């Protein structure tokens, strides 16, 4: 009788689950990622007022809409940079987002500012793999269940471990970014927890990406090893994705800058993506539009001040470009750092030898015509302090070797330089030792195997000499591939009293007299890439 009763109970539960299963036919999951402050509608960009209008359109048709974001919303465009992301959160609140996770650039203003932005948000921030080392607890709640109609949706977040080196390391001190097996375990734990808590649908917000250049986990690693995710909303690599999985789930991403608005629905037992490319839906919510336009006008007043003029385009391409080879804009900015360092005279009359700027630190080019303060801030949006450090020639060689380890394949740490001439022989394989502390990048086993430094400050390179270098706080703290700078920066770094963008403004106005000369029209031959 006990066996019969147990079987009856089990059958009853199964029947109840079947009868009362959530109706997914009226659920729409809208998603964005890597908006980077490109929130105003423009040619090729939908903008957040259109996101809101599309959300309202679905709801008017009787759908229940979940709206989520996969990170990198509060940094890059001047529209959000000047307020340190505050305007981005205001826009997201007005649109009616339900949840978001952190991108690596959410940490660019520091943890205190990010905490302020989280408090400002009327939606949930979730992240399962960023832990506070002192407590072992997650920096934000790992997950949240959100109800839409009769559907309970479990949403959890993940942030790329690359954040350790792609934002200023000081801004993530005290945080641990779970990677590989630990990341997969954390993700599976949240899926299981959300299902046990009654979630009908599991949505992963993953600022992870598919492109793996430093060995950290990719989205594909997670999808292959974590069971139970229905919709995997990706970000970080700025790629449009619509990848149905064998189990009926889906891997999606909108690319970037709201060029596409992500839309996912459930049809015939599987999840289906139907991204709205710019031009497909052209309405704008007027309240959100007014809010964004007002912020744009405020920023424009500050950004439209003239700094200089240029008679040619200064290309800011990344790949091929600033992350693979010498670029004219890299020469200009590195020259500005070196000039400003020398003007500051922080070494009491001793000359400063050279300057470095990581290619990934230059975010936009500058077009022919008037150069405004906004153009400068768009090119250098991080407001990074400039420092002078003194290092041995051996460390200078190690830094360039480490920072060109993948050349000609793009790497954000690729050194744009002033006062240095070097050559990279890409026919020689890079040999790696152990990874630098708190870094995803490896120390070169044989500095000088691929890289030859020809001159420093106009003189032949001497591996035993000492050299003074101007670099950003990000680089001095070991950001990107610059971990070899850290011990020397900790001992003898000196601030020159200027941030990166101010140095460029001062160089353009004072040293160049407000006109960029023709010698910056092309790269000046400081770097040779041998293939």
Summarize the structure in words.
The protein has 15 helices and 28 strands. The chain is of the alpha/beta class and 531 residues long. The strands form seven sheets. Strands 1, 2, 3, 4, 13, 14 and 15 form a seven-stranded mixed beta sheet that branches. Helix 2 runs parallel beside helix 4, helix 2 packs antiparallel against helix 9 and helix 4 packs antiparallel against helix 9. The longest helix is centred in the N-terminal third of the chain and has 18 residues. It is globular, with a radius of gyration of 25 Å. The termini are far apart. The N terminus is likely disordered.
Characteristics of this structure?
six-stranded mixed beta sheet, 28 strands, globular, about 30% helix, about 525 residues, 15 helices, alpha/beta, seven-stranded mixed beta sheet
Radius of gyration: 25 Å
User: What's the rounded overall pLDDT mean?
Assistant: 93
Strand content: 25-35%
Low-confidence stretches: 1-19
Shape: globular
* Number of helices, counting only DSSP H or I runs of 4 residues or more: 15
Largest sheet: 7 strands, mixed
Which percent range fits the helix content?
25-40%
Oligomer: single chain
Task: Give the beta-strand count.
Answer: 28
Helix and strand composition category = alpha/beta
User: Distance N terminus to C terminus?
Assistant: 80 Å
Strand-helix topology:
Elements: H1 2-19, E1 27-32, H2 48-60, E2 64-69, H3 78-81, H4 86-95, E3 99-100, H5 111-120, E4 124-125, E5 130-132, E6 143-148, E7 151-159, H6 163-166, E8 175-177, H7 180-196, E9 201-207, H8 219-225, E10 231-234, E11 240-244, E12 250-254, E13 260-267, E14 270-273, E15 276-277, H9 286-303, E16 306-310, H10 328-344, E17 354-358, E18 369-372, H11 373-379, E19 385-392, H12 393-403, E20 415-418, E21 420-425, E22 432-435, E23 442-444, E24 451-456, E25 459-460, E26 466-472, H13 473-476, H14 486-492, E27 494-499, H15 500-511, E28 527-530
Parallel strand pairs: 1-2, 2-3, 3-4, 7-9, 9-10, 10-12, 17-26, 21-28
Antiparallel strand pairs: 1-13, 5-8, 6-7, 11-12, 13-14, 13-15, 16-18, 17-20, 19-26, 19-27, 21-24, 22-23, 24-25
Helix pairs in contact: 2-4, 2-9, 4-9, 10-15
